[in-house]
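Weekly structure sync, notes
Attendees: PL (lead), two postdocs, one rotation student
Agenda item 3: pending single-chain targets
PL asked that the sequence for the first pending target be pasted directly into the notes so everyone works from the same version. It is reproduced below exactly as submitted, 506 residues in total.
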Amino acid sequence: MIVLTVVAVVFVLAGTIGCLSTWALEASLMDRADIRVQAASQRGNTRRHSESTEKNVAQQLLQTYGSDSSDYNPPAGLDAPGQAAGTLALLRNRQGVVASAYINNEGKYTYLTRDQINTLMAALNSGKTKPFTVYVEGLGTYRVLVTRDSVSSDAVLTGVSLADDEALIGRQMIIEVLLVGSGVVLAAVVCFGLVSRFLQPLRRVAATARQVATQPMDSGEVQIERRVSLADLCSSTEVGEVGTALNTLLDHVNDALEVRQRSETQVRQFVADASHELRTPLAAIRGYTELVRSGREGDQLSEISQQAMDRIASESLRMSELVNDLLLLARLDAGRELEDELVDLAPVLIESVADAQIAGPDHTFELDLSAVFGADEDLDEQLPLVRGDEQRLRQVLANLLANARLHTPAGTHVWVKLLQEGDEYRIVVADNGPGISPQLRGKLFERFTRADASRNRQGGSTGLGLAICAAIAQAHGGSVQLADSASYLDDAAQGACFVLSLPVAS
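Predicted structure, written out during the meeting:
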């Protein structure tokens, strides 16, 4: 943009100067032409009244209009000493008799054609008293002056050719175009070189900013080590100021990331420690509760006490599950490696769907493996293998199926379908329930996210199920996403649709 701006400014300035110089030259040449035509008219007037030419004047005015006689003499005054080549003269007396001729490039007197005389007669009758420009067919542009003979008062038109002036102006314009073009090209080359040289530090600053921008900073321990080099931090230039400001910004961002990392580490450590410490007392509570509930027959509890024991047992169980979920998320956040083994998805899916059907008898679960095995579902034909931790993958499927069971009304149909797309296996879990509200979609995989009234909290949901699914899938190099069921199933599945993607085992 800088180069284009400079080139445009140079072009406009050079073009303006060229136009002004051409206009000034044209005005100067026109003034000179006026002087020449006035001088030629004065010489002709003096010549016509000299003693040696008086009888020639009378003879010439008797020539017929447009005569082509070979012994024709020039109009009086055209033969005056000093008349240049290209000068023309036209005389008209009171009786309307016209005499006209011009001096050609060889210095000879030449007749004017009838059309040329008509053009000059129109100029003669224009009534103008100052020099003006007329185009004469076959002769070119002329500067003419209409006067009255000082003695006879006959009308006299004198003209001088502007051919040399026009040629000079044409050469001037060609030279100006060449100079303007050369100047623009030279300015572009010089400006491009200078701008490229001066912007090299800025390009390096921009490269530093791009490298920092591409560095992942959303999770984990992040350290921004890239900085603008000291050579580009000259404070006397704008680029140096930008580089210094960028380094300062990166220092602040790096400090903020370190603070965030320390805070996250402390939170994870606290969650892990608290969860670990809670497991023992929760196990003790559950143990003592079971002990009281299974006491001797003589030690019967009252109905209220029995209900209290049941509540203590159920809540301690739910608390234990929450603690286990928190511990699992803490391990995944810490980047602890999972089991790495070949896992056959077919039996995992079959068993998970069977377990879900038993846990939710009021729902209908349908498993479709035909996209991988064919219509006959010959499980020995091809094994859908992935690498990972089988127990954790089972947990993902259990969470997705439990999510479909707990947050949909009785009678809901749940579809589970296995697909292979490229180098990924995709497990689709969809239902025809009430679906997920748009307000919840953006934060669905965040921790402790719970559904609204349309998918209310049933079964003691902790809001960690989908977060655990996403973390386990990411640890396996895959993902869990909320998708459009129409892309995988028919129109019957119009509720929630989750897709678990896992890379095919190599």
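Discussion points:
- The mean pLDDT is 81.
- Residues 68 and 111 are 7 Å apart (CA to CA).
Action: rotation student to compare against the earlier draft before next sync.
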